Every structure is written in C-alpha cells, then in structure tokens.
Model the fold of this input.
Amino acid sequence: MASMSGLLLATTEAVHAVPAGVTALFAILLVAMIAALALEETIHAKKSAIVGVFAGACLVLATVLDLLPFGDVTLPGGHTVKMPVYIPAIDWGVITIILGASLFVEVTSRSGVFTWMAITLTKKSGGDPWKLLLSYGILTVVFSAMLNNVTAMIIIGSLTGVSLTKLQRTDLLLGFLVVEGLLTNVGGLLTLISSVPNIIVGGIAGIGFVQFFLVAVPYVVFATAATLLMGRWRFGIRGLSDEQEKLAAASMVSAFDENESVPSSRFFWFSIAVLVLFVACLAGQSLLPAGLDKLGMGFVALTFAGIVLMAYKHEVDKFYEAVDWDLLAFFAGLFVVINTMEHAQVLAMIGQGIKLVIGLGPNLGAGLLLVASAIASSVTDNIPLAAMLAKILENDPANYAAMAPYWWSVIFGANLGGNITPIGSASTVVAMTIIHKHKLPLTFVGFVKIAALFALVQIIIAVVYVVILSLSGILVV
Done:
C-alpha cells in the first residue's frame, strides 16, 4: 500500500512549469476527443481508431513542446531499461485484467457453467423480469466489491444475455445491461479495495478497511435500491402481477434444463472449482503470499486464463479471435491521452480549480467537491485525478481531522463520476461493448441521456449522505 501511494504521489509531483496556453491547448484536445467519441456513429469510426488518432496527436505535440519524460526507465532495484515513453503511460493492470478475464470467461463458458448459473437464477425468479433484475443487480454489486468492476461486468453481462434469451425477453436486455453497468461503480464503493481511487485516497487519508466498510455500506444499499427502482421505471421492467402470466412464466421456466449446455460433467466441475478459486484469488489478492501479492489482479486473471486454456490447448487461437481487441486498443490509447494531459497539467488545472471549493466549509465545500470530482472523473481517468486531489487535501494546512468530509467526497465523486459517460469508467466501457456485441442501439450520446439521471440521483444521495455524516461528526479519518 505504501509503495503504491508513494508511486502515485511521485507521479503527481513530477510536473514542471507549463505555460497556461499549452495547458489550455491540451484541454481543448481532450474536449475534442470526447466530442469525437460522442459522434462515433456519425463519423463511422471505431472508438479505438478515434482515441488512437488523438493519442498520436497528443504524443507528437507533447514531444515538440518537451513535456514528456524521455530517457531510460529505472525499475525497483536500480535496474534501468529502454522503453518508449508511451509504454509506462498505459495502465497495464487494467489491460491484463480485461484480457485475462475475457479469455477466462470465454473458455469456461464452453463448460456450460455460466449458462447453468443463468438458468438457475432464472428458475429461482420464476420467470419474473423484476425479480431477475433484483437478483442480477445485487450480484453485480457483490461481484464489483469482491473482484473489480471490469470482471464483474464481463461475468454478469454474459449471464444476463443467457437468462433473457431463454425467457425470450431480449427486449429488456438493454435495460438490464445499462443498470448493471451503473451498479458496478456503486459496488466499487463498498470496500477499501473495491476500486483504485478507494485504495489511493483511503491509503493517504489513513482510513481503515472496517471503518471504510461501515461508512460506505449504508450508501451502497440506498444507491443500489434507487438505481434498481429507477431501472424498473426507465426501462419498463415490470413484475408479473397477473396470475395467468405467473403460471405461464412458471410453466416456461420449469421446462428449462440447466444441464442442457453441459457437454462434460468433468469439465463442468473443473470450471466450477477454477471459477471459485479465481474469485477467491481476486478477492484476496492482497493476502497472497509475500511477493505474489505485488503481481496484481491482472497477473491473477492471466494465470487463470492460461489454466483453463489448457483444456483447449490445440485450439487456443479460436479464443484469441474472440477477444475484443478494439476495447483493449481503446484503453491503451485513452491511457496515453490521459498521461499527456497529466504532463500538460490539465489534471493539475482541474485539481487547483477544485481546491478553491475546499474553502467553502466542510458542508457546502464537501458537497461541491463531490460534484466537481464526479464531473471531472466522467471525462478523464479517475486514478490520477484521485491521486491529485488526495495530494491537495494532504497538503492543506487545515486541521487534518476536519478534512474527513473532503476525503469522502473525493472517494464518492471519483467512483460515481464513471456513471455519467460511457468512458467515465472501465466497467461502463465494457458494458457498452457488450451492448454493441448484442447489436443493441445505444450511442455515446444515448448512454449519457439515459445514465445522466441515474448518476444525478446517485450523486445527490451521496452529497446528502456525506453532509449528514459530517454534521453528525461520524466522518473521521
């Protein structure tokens, strides 16, 4: 934890004087990229191509203006390696989690385990769409808290597609996937290790695991309930009220055979065992033996992908073809863009602007800080943003204990801001990818129009919650 915090703080401190005009120019580039992504359908270009063009432009411009730290990279232990400047700019932890989890899900799905889980859940719901949404919503929050947002969305998205296809209710698939995507960021608030911003801010502020959970759990419960009820209203996901409908649905699901897609009992139970172990290792990654815990969740995901691939060792190329390389390329390009924005001090500019809010007091100031950090994290990576804001709060001369509402405002804002736009968090990007994979009509702008109201309600609840806890004196660090 200490080494991670130190690295992040070093990153935020490694800035040099940049003319205001240069910072403004890069800010304009960031806005232009977001606009291009919003017009993805209109300009007929894949998101990876759009971000790739802006990444290239940002790198060239940053090089000409001497903003990037060229030279050898010194690794822990003093070993130096030659590396292109854009390679360390990419968050390879996220890339490897997506790659490993995608391959793992793709291979284990051959065993029928996900179909079995989906049909079992569907039968438990009695074919009632509302009960099914409740089940998947709660499962999404739990998975996001235990694993990570990306893996949770990949697994839950796969299960949802199977369930609604079996129920012949694919008309509800868009609503289910959008609600699940939004709930991943709510679930990411549940524990100290559920998301990287939690780890960054919690580590610097000195918030303990149990303390974090006790403060976060009431909000997560309220926000989850509100999101599910709004999803029911917005997408017309109604329960079965008519007795005839209930009997017809019960008759339909009773005919479902959860074992119909299990080609091999031996491989099925092997997949169950590996899936349980996979979840356990991701959830307890920080508790792995000394040394192994430093390899990260991406290593865990790739290791388990390699294990299950051995079951199809003669046809692994088929699974490689199924990987969404466009999604991986998009993230790589996005990380490069955000890194150049950091060196151009665009993030510092955002951070300094937010710092002015702190002077408005622990109630109004904390509420505005939460909203501001949410808006900022909706258009940029919340990891460097959280690190920047945490550094600002740490250096504030005010009484350290009195800063508790601000710390929690950054935590809530950095996580919930990912629900405002489809590029606000990795999980919403994955959700959009699954939506497009099912050929469902939802554009960048369409997502914002739908998600904005959900995000607004979640953020309002968070603001009220933080202010109430601040006034009651419960928030401490």
User: Anything to note?
Assistant: The longest helix spans residues 444-472. The radius of gyration is 23 Å.
